[in-house]
Amino acid sequence: MTILRDIQQVFSRYKILALLLAIAAIWSFFTWQSDGAFLTSRNFANLLRQMAITGMLASGMVFVIIAGEIDLSVGSLLGLLGGVAAVLDTSFHLPVALNFAIVLALGLLLGLFNGYWVAYLRVPSFIVGLAGMLIFRGILLAVTNGSTIAIESEGFVAFGQSYLPVVAGYVLGAALFVLQGVLMWRSRANRQRYQLAVPPLWQEAVKLIVIGLIIGGFVEALNSYEGIPLPVLIMLVILGGFSFLARNTVFGRRIYAVGSNLEATRLSGVNTRLVKMALFGLMGLMCALAGLTNTARMAAGSPSSGNMGELDAIASCFIGGTSMRGGSGTVLGAIIGALIMASLDNGMSMLSVESYWQMIVKGSILLLAVWIDVMSGSSER
């Protein structure tokens, strides 16, 4: 019980630090086993581009889980929307902007459709997601005729394969560092204004320096290849926007309240059904964005796209510290969880690990993450 209590304290107080240490251990192992090939600039860029797709799904999934629900249809919906985009490009030759607008709107509508079944018709989200997994995959097979559809538009392909110019990457890194410093200063000032405890100034200075080193290393590693991939930039924008939504908006607070105590939140006057439906709509929007990115990255729409994507998204959330009981979790944790999942996929593929072992490892990590969450909750009670 002492060891269990120590594990619970580490993950509850230092979740992000523990996840970063886990990433460092994974990267060190694969770098050692691959004779340094794992952390080359080229593979690092490919790793982050791969992570961005899972991260988009995880960014929407984390809010669904926080609200006490689950969505098993995201992998199939990603594949369907990516396939629709490929058909619109190849068969109808739509402009890229119009194509993207149609696919994003369709993703939002299908997400709201799922949410309506869950929130208003009171069908368990597990069943709605399971049905959606089958329905969307079947529609995808019908849309693509079971064959891969190559993308013809160069602008479409550039969405998933282009890079930021090197100078723009350095400017972005500097801007992120300055923004982090401003946010830390404002947080410290607000806590002092309300006479709350604040950490020592040197401690926050060290934290800012560490963050600066991480940002600098991140930008330098990518710029030494071809620059920051566009999907990674989009993922950073989603991370910032969704983190702001969760922490600084009324809607964000309602998400956590719905997951923590649904009945009390409803009695306080919050339209809990509308909140849940909106979250599924947001999940559908992220599926559309991930589907567009995946299709552009592969330069083709495939009937197998998004297969098992729901596993990676859900595992990313749980590994990142999201509680399966609802009411707790962060977007940053889910993104780091997605990075862990992508690192395992990339590293094991590089080492030519058999696919069945890859599935066993990922499933075991998911089981371990949920076990830690359950035991942490038990120890708190």
Automatic annotation (TrEMBL):
Leader peptide range in chain numbering: none
Membrane-spanning intervals of the chain: 12-30, 50-67, 74-94, 100-119, 126-151, 163-185, 205-222, 228-246, 274-293, 313-344
Keyword entries, A-Z: Cell inner membrane, Cell membrane, Membrane, Sugar transport, Transmembrane, Transmembrane helix, Transport
Record's bilayer topology term: Multi-pass membrane protein
Domain of life (superkingdom): Bacteria
Localisation per UniProt entry: Cell membrane
InterPro entries reported for this sequence: ABC_transp_permease (IPR001851)
Pfam family, one: BPD_transp_2
Listed PANTHER family: ABC TRANSPORTER PERMEASE PROTEIN YPHD-RELATED-RELATED, XYLOSE TRANSPORT SYSTEM PERMEASE PROTEIN XYLH
Protein purpose: Part of the binding-protein-dependent transport system for D-xylose. Probably responsible for the translocation of the substrate across the membrane.
Protein name as it appears in the record: Xylose transport system permease protein XylH
